[in-house]
Specification:
By secondary structure, this protein is mainly beta. Helices cover about 10% and strands about 35% of the residues. It is built from 12 helices and 72 strands.
Length: about 800
């Protein structure tokens, strides 16, 4: 990999001009080169601030030729995305950033003109059940716009599904539109199960439907690609399934696929993708056979975007020292950024929005290979995602090698909008990774899911999550005795209310599921949440120094390993144990108590600590007797008023020094709750180049094969026409030097030309590929040479050495040279 270090930007223009002008200069290890991309640029440009590239790919390819750190500055504007920016080891030590405070957006949508939407035909209008709504429906012919790739609807959900990816999406005024559905906002319930089908097959299941749905089905006369979304077994496992058949006379529904868990009666679901049900503002339907899109606009259409781009915006593999900064990626149905086997890869100050899949995934090609480290996402805004926000998988659990990856100071909201479960705001896996100072809100399922060792979740502000699920947790993990050293500390869980459900399950702020062990939950605030926490029978867990305030249900700790849960041979928790070398090496040294776990009644919830917790207007803890017998339960208090808090009414929960709470629990850990959540940062770099105005200058033009050179309005006749030699434009030396306003001296003995302009002197020798600029040597692709008794020199090398800007018009094969006489040293 290239070795690059940052130094003064004063060298930047000189180094880069030398490189891309075609004389193959290798920058010193301490040089920093800045390249530029702009909407009005050209990939035939040199990539400087006044002659930027048009695409990231051109800038990337230019950066690969530079032995030194490269900063790629992207000028403001909205850039259309049609392919993935692929970065590899060759792209290490590179920054991609917005220039100054300019807004840079990469958008993968097909832009539709609102004026192209027309009234629907009488035939189509007649199909829509709600005729009043039908009067508002518009249509647009995508085929006539040369948009012919529509993808397909997908089996998406928790468990095994036959499809990968996400379906096409539609946005109006940046709001995701809803595929037409019944019912519009609620669910219907599954009826009697007539055929259960076989899990993860296309055999599907068959159920009875309710009377209202049966009546509705009779009006679905043109529906040929109907789908259902539902929680068909569990309130934490959704699926989207294709309908094989519905029979309005019998009142039955059959699917063409069945998910991992199957189906039972009295579970919630809805139908979608029916033109007949296009009856609510913000709904749409796509006729994939005809290529026609139907829309019921919810407001005046100012911007309409149809999205089918299913690849990542950026894909990074086997690279290190890459920074993505202050960019906005939007409107794709694949992932935003994927980085695999990377070191020091950082996304900073970016915005990702309206993406159907995960926002940012930093991972490893093989589990526990330890190839990803010191990478992460910070200061970013990730919102309106179809799936999750940030995934971090780093480190080697088998050797306990740290990943040291991070999700820090991010705002992640309105996510899991398409795949509604197991797509958390942040997912942590591996060793020694962290999620801190984040704000995470508004999602149907998890805020954070974690699985690994020494994972830290601290100072996060979490609210309005798990809004459409039960038996779920804002922070969730489960079924592992080996995930040691994890801490959930100093977080603020608040304003979380669970759904109505017939399953009897709860939704909690923290959920250590199915005998999960060795997590510390310390110093958190639980305020107005549905249920505090559920510890499902694990070992060596701690629940300490927490504030439990005005919540609906208690902290609970059960002993499920002694009742209904299997933790023996073949169980998931036993398999997880055996997957780690827990009896030997670094594991035995670091976790001696784990070595003999199978000899210590592993099903019994032993060695847990619950102490120093303060509860106000919340039911008292519900603890299994075994938790009390084999653990430490002490100094947990119930309070009757809020006098011990600094300003409870305004949610300042810091404790009053000498107050009632600290008198009852003198060793209660004092936490600076003001540190919870995001913090302000100045995220603008200070090493930007300024656009420069020429002190004096002009424009030179010459064309390949022509003996005419135009210097502003003056025509000069060349002794020899400009010509291309080895892919470089060559011109008579004296003509170009004089046109540039430089002096020329010729040494016939050494066949060396010396030219000076201002404080710049360059020297070249015929047939030598060396050019000396103020004594510094650079290497030319093509040397000065004699053709037909005339000395020809590479025009770009000469011009850019004197600080001029060189352009190329491919259609006319014309070289343009902008004379810019500012100091380029």
């Amino acid at each position: 990999m290239k070795s690059k270090k940052v130094i003064s930007i004063a060298l930047v223009l000189t180094v880069f001009a030398s490189l891309l002008c075609g004389f193959g200069m290798t920058a010193g290890a301490e040089d920093v080169v800045q390249l530029y991309v702009a909407l009005d640029g050209s990939d035939t440009n040199s990539g400087t601030i006044s002659a930027p590239f048009a695409t990231l790919e051109a800038a990337r390819d230019a950066a690969r030729k530079i032995d030194g750190q490269v900063i790629i500055n992207i000028r403001g504007g909205k850039y259309p995305v049609t392919s993935t920016l692929e970065l590899t080891a060759a792209d290490s030590n590179t920054t991609y950033r917005a220039y100054k405070e300019e807004e840079v957006i990469f958008n993968a949508a097909n832009i539709l003109n609102p004026a192209d939407f027309k009234a629907i035909s009488a035939e189509k209008k007649a199909l829509i059940i709600d005729q009043k709504a039908a009067a508002n429906v518009k249509m647009i012919d995508l085929k006539s716009l040369d948009i012919t790739e529509y993808g397909s609807l997908k089996c998406i959900g928790m468990g095994v599904n036959k499809d990968k990816g996400y379906p096409a999406a539609l946005y109006v005024n940046d709001e995701m539109q809803t595929i037409s559905r019944y019912p519009n906002n609620e669910y219907v319930e599954t009826g009697e199960v007539l055929a259960a089908g076989a899990a993860n097959t296309d055999e599907g299941w068959t159920i009875k439907v309710d009377a209202a749905t049966k009546g509705r089905m009779k009006k679905w006369t043109d529906a040929n690609d109907v789908w259902v979304f539902g929680y068909f077994m569990h309130d934490w496992a959704e699926n989207q399934l294709p309908v094989r058949e519905f029979d309005a006379n019998k009142g039955t529904l059959s699917t063409a696929w069945i998910d991992h868990y199957g189906i039972v009666a009295e579970r919630r679901y809805y139908y979608y993708n029916l033109l007949e049900e296009l009856d609510a503002p913000g709904e749409w339907y796509l006729d994939r056979e005809e290529g026609v899109l139907y829309l019921y606009p919810s407001e005046t259409m100012e911007k309409v975007e149809f999205i089918t781009f299913e690849a990542p915006f950026i894909n990074v593999t086997d690279a290190e020292n890459i920074l993505i900064k202050n960019l906005h990626l939007e409107k794709g149905i694949g992932q935003g950024i994927v980085a695999t086997d990377v070191k020091n890869f950082v996304v900073d100050g970016c915005e990702l929005s309206s993406i159907s899949d995960n926002g940012i995934t930093i991972t490893q090609s093989v589990a526990n290979n330890g190839k990803t480290s010191n990478s992460g996402v910070k200061n970013s805004y990730i919102h309106d995602m179809g799936a999750g926000g940030i995934t971090l998988i780093a480190g080697d659990r088998k050797t306990l090698t740290p990943g040291n990856c991070f999700a820090t100071n991010n705002h992640i909201e309105r996510f899991s909008k398409i795949k509604t479960t197991y797509t958390p705001g942040i997912s942590l896996e591996g060793v020694a990774n962290k999620a801190d100072y984040n704000e995470i809100n508004d999602a149907p399922h998890f805020a954070i899911r974690y699985q690994g060792n020494d994972l830290i979740m601290e100072y996060n502000d979490v609210y309005r999550v798990c809004t459409d699920t039960a038996d779920s947790g804002a922070f969730y993990t489960g079924r592992d005795w080996t995930t040691r050293g994890c801490e959930i500390r100093y977080n603020y869980f608040h304003d979380m209310k669970m759904i109505g459900t017939k399953t009897g399950m709860r939704m909690q702020a923290v959920y250590l599921d199915d005998m999960h062990s060795y997590t510390k939950v310390n110093g958190n605030i639980f305020y107005k949440v549905s249920s505090i926490a559920l510890f499902g029978g694990g070992r060596y867990n701690e629940f300490t120094n927490n504030l439990i305030l005005e919540s609906d249900d208690a902290f609970r700790f059960d002993a499920r390993g002694l009742t209904w849960m299997n933790c023996g041979e073949g169980s998931q928790i036993m398999n997880n144990l055996k997957a780690m070398p827990y009896k030997e090496g670094v594991w035995a040294e670091k976790y001696p108590e784990l070595v003999g776990i199978l000899d210590d009644e592993p099903a019994v919830p032993k060695h847990n600590v619950i102490k120093n917790n303060v509860t106000y207007q919340t039911p008292d803890m519900v603890l299994a007797e075994e938790v009390k017998t084999y653990g430490t339960i002490e100094n947990n208090i119930m309070i009757g008023n809020t006098k011990g808090f600094t300003d409870y009414k305004n949610q300042d929960f810091s404790l009053v020094e000498g107050g009632a709470i600290l008198k009852q629990i003198p060793d209660f850990e004092i936490v600076d709750y003001s540190k919870i959540g995001r913090y302000e940062v100045n995220n603008l770099d200070n090493d930007f180049e300024e656009e420069k105005d020429a002190v004096e200058g002009g424009m030179i033009k010459l064309s390949i094969g022509s003996d005419k050179l135009y210097n502003n309005d003056d025509e000069v006749t060349l002794d020899v026409p400009a010509q291309i030699i080895d892919s470089r434009t060559m011109v008579p030396l004296r003509a170009i030097f004089e046109a540039l306003g430089a002096t020329v001296e010729w040494d016939a003995d050494t066949r060396t030309v010396t030219s000076t302009k201002g404080d710049i002197t360059i020297q070249m020798t015929v047939d030598s590929n060396k050019l000396y600029k103020n004594g510094e040597e650079t290497v030319l692709d093509v040397p000065a040479q004699i053709v037909n008794n005339r000395t020809l020199v590479p025009v770009r090398a000469i011009s850019e050495s004197f600080g001029c800007q060189v352009g190329w018009e491919a259609e006319t094969q014309t070289v343009t040279i902008e004379i810019r006489d500012y100091d380029i040293q």
